[in-house]
Structure formats: structure tokens, C-alpha cells
Amino acid sequence: xxxxxxxxxxxxxxxxxxxxxxxxxxxxxxxxxxxxxxxxxxxxxxxxxxxxxxxxxxxxxxxxxxxxxxxxxxxxxxxxxxxxxxxxxxxxxxxxxxxxxxxxxxxxxxxxxxxxxxxxxxxxxxxxxxxxxxxxxxxxxxxxxxxxxxxx
Length: 152
Ligand SMILES: [Zn+2]
Hints:
Elements: H1 5-40, H2 42-80, E1 97-101, H3 106-116, H4 120-126, E2 135-139, H5 140-151
Antiparallel strand pairs: 1-2
Helix pairs in contact: 2-4
The protein binds zinc ion.
């Protein structure tokens, strides 16, 4: 038995339509099932949402930490050269280095900056690293020692 070309063609169309129909029905079915599942498992649903939120938050935090560190390094290099180091003990680990106000007028400056609504590093970058004589690089230890000294 041989089929005519027409029959084959017709059948093909029919087959295609059926496939599409099943696909759509399947999709609807899938959606319904997933909505039902969410209704039946509110706790699990919450857990999933919480985990997704947590994951996003962690990613955001990591990105913002990296961004802050990059900006810190940028500023430290601008004031301390290619290899910024503590002006007292020569420590070069950038994670413990910070820009210190030589004349301890940091509080005054912070108040000024708050009025401008910009952070310290942001302010320095935006203004092309001004007042090179106003700051020095210190590590956290030396900065703390300086703080103790001035408190006396
Ligand atoms: Zn130091």
C-alpha cells in the first residue's frame, strides 16, 4: 500500500498541529501543577524564596565588597604610589591600610562630606585626589596607636 503525497502532506500538518496542542496543554498543565504545588507546600515555597533571596544578597554583598576594595586601592595608590605602604611601619597589605588625616581633622571633614552626601573615597575620586598633604597612609595598627597617642 502506498500513500499519496497529499495524504502524507495532510498528515504531517495534522501531526504538527497535534504536537503544538500537546505542547501548549502540557505547558498549561505544568503551570497548573506548579501553582498547585506552591499552594500545597507554602513552607517549602517560602524556603525556596528565602534561599534565592539569600543567594542574591550574598552575591550583591560580595560585589559591593569587591567594589569598595577596588576603590580603596585606587585611592591608596593615588596617595601612596604604586605600592602604598604604612608611613610608620611600612606595612603593604592594602586590606589593613587606610588614609589617615595627618592633622586629625577627619571628623570635621566627615561632617562636611555628609552635607554633600558623598562618601570619603567617592569624594576623593570625584575631586581627583585633592589635598595630598592633608592625608597619609597608615595601617590599622598604627592608626589606632596614633589615636591612643592623641587621646592622651
Ligand atoms: Zn603601620
